[in-house]
Each structure stands twice: as C-alpha cells, then as structure tokens.
Specification:
single chain; 404 residues; seven-stranded antiparallel β-sheet; five-stranded mixed β-sheet; 16 strands
Amino acid sequence: MIRAYKFLMRPTVGQQQALSDMLKDHCSLYNGALQERRDAYRHVSKTSIKYGQQSAQLKGIRVFDPECQGRWSFSSQQATLRRLDKAFVAFFRRVKSGEKPGYPRFRGVSWFDTVDFPKDGDGCRWDSTPHDPVTRVRLQGVGHVKVNQHRPVVGKVKTVSVKREGKRWYVILTAEQGEPEPLPATGSVVGIDLGVANFLADSNGGFVSNPRHGRKVAAKLEAAQQALARFPRVRRDKRTKNHQRAVQCVADLHREVRRQRLDHAHKTALGLVREHDFIAHEDLKIRNMVKAPTPKPDPDQPGVFLPNGAAAKAGLNKSINDAGWGVFLTILHAKAESAGREVIAVDPRNTSRTCPPCGHVAAQNRPTQEKFHCVACGHTAHADTVGAINVLRAGLVRRDARKG
C-alpha cells in the first residue's frame, strides 16, 4: 500500500527565494504549455497537442532558457506537463458526460503552489539517516533543505512533492509499504449518520458534537477580509507591507480552521476504527447537496424571480462545508484500510424515515429535525440514531451479499 507523509521544511532565506523561483518557473511552463494548446486548436485547424509532443520540446526549452527552465529537474517539469494533460483529459471527459466542462485556466503565481518529483533520486533526494539528528531533502536548484520530521517514514520513498501554504513550505512523501498488521478484532459493528446539528450519531445511541470551527472564527475572518478588500488589487510583487500583512491574516485564519477540521476528523475516525470491526455510513453526494437552488422566474413579470429559499439553502450549505464530511470519510476509509477494518457506504434514501422495529416508511415519521415518531407502531427515538441503525442494517446486508 501507499502512504503519504507531510513534513514542515525549514529553508534558509536563500532557499526560500529559490523555492519561490522554482514555483514561478514551473507556473510559467504550465501557462506556456496551456497557451500552446489553445493556439494550436484555434489557429491550426483545431489541432490537439498531446503531452508527448510538449514533453519532447522540454530539452530545447531548457537550452533556450538555462537561467529559468534549465536549472530545475527535468522530471519535475515533465510532471508539470502531465498535470496540464490530466486537466485536459478531465475537461474532455466532462464534455462527453454532459457535465459543466470547466476549461483549464491559466495559473497565477499565487495559485501555483506545488511541484512534483515523480521519483526519489531524480532531481530530489530524501535524506533521513539514522545517525544524523537533522533530516534534509535535497532539491535540484535549491540545495539541502532542513525538514522537521516529526515521525519516521516507513517503507521505500517513491515520490516527493514540495508545497507552499502561505509562508510555510512542506515536503510531501509517498512511501510504498507492505500490508499493515490488522488491529485485534473487537466483534463490534456500527452504523453512523452524519449531520449538521451533531457531527455524527452512531447506531449505539452515541453522538459526536459538531465543533463548527468555521463559525467560531467567522467574525474574525469577516473583519480580516474587509480589511483586505480596502486595498486595490495589484500584482503580488507590487503589494505594500500592510497589504501583505492583510493577505497573511486571512490566510492564517483559513489555515487555522483547516487544521482544526483535520484534527477533529482524524481523532473521530481513529476512535471508530479502534472500537469497531465494521463501519457503515451513508453514500453522500456532497457536491450535489451543496448546490444552489434553481432560480424560479416569475411568469407574470419578466426579469423578476420568485422566492426559492436561496438564503436558507446558503446557510445550510455553509454548515455542511464547515462540518467537512468529505474529508472525514476519506480519512475514515484510509485508517480502516490500514487497520484491517471494513467500511461500506450505503444508499442514504429514507434512512431517517424508516421505523427500525416495524419497517414503516413515511415522511410523517420524522416530525422535527431531532424527533422520530413512527405513525404506525408509535416507536420514538432520536432521528439521527434511527438513521444510523438503518444504515448499519443496510451495510450488513451489503456485506453479506458481497461475501455470498
């Protein structure tokens, strides 16, 4: 299996400048390759340029511009061109499937923050010797950069990536490992129901409260964004010190919320994996759940729209995004795989409207957000707990069908 590690780098002032130059030059390569594809399709009889053609031009580009493109790793530049090719492949796939296409866009220097090295030892070298207290990563054109390695890397390092987040620099490794040793069996199974009022409810009657990290800093973030909006939009290298501080203040608040959300997701997922052998959850289509409602034109007044609940839906969408369901489920599946646990996603339809004792399904069974009261047999319980029980039952049925 492949596992990723993320470590904070401690570059010197000169190395920070070299890392910034590396991102800038890779961004220029990405934009140049995108422009070439656009021009070829528009002006040369709708010709499509592929990755192989652009990769073959790299040697000439490095000879022509040795100070910028020639100083960086050849394989990392190929990885940047592959990133653009993946964007076009995804674009054509969305066009064929009838989705919103989303044509690949040019990247600004501030929005191009990652450089990939496809192979350890080709333009980069992860150096973690046991006798050396300081861990370093060697990057072509940058040098040996100190790394704050807070845990050991198990397995053989396959790829290395350098990422900028605000003023911080990180190195991300992927290592190939053997099959992990599963945790001891507990004999416990559980179903979970994700929500907004509570982060999740389990089939045993337990609840995990929703920390609402984004809401807690909403006032600070609003003030910081208002302060940033007072500055005119200028190029990154033309910003004043006050402008830079305002940008950094907004970035720090977003980073704080993101790290808190990740921490909560990791701890919650770890608790579930340690306590249960089998976990069932709803197969939520989060992207569809947070879509804005369709406008309703007034047939009697052209140009006027009828109320469609957009304000209320916007508040619900904000709460869903703040909860971070997608991140949590991704982490849960990864931890379960490492621990030898089984996780199954089930159809979420009617899970909160079906009575567990009698099986009666009706919208009237859930009169409020929290209360469940079966109109057929009179069973009462918390609506989220009922949903978790039904999710567990559906998950066990799927597991048995898969084994059979």
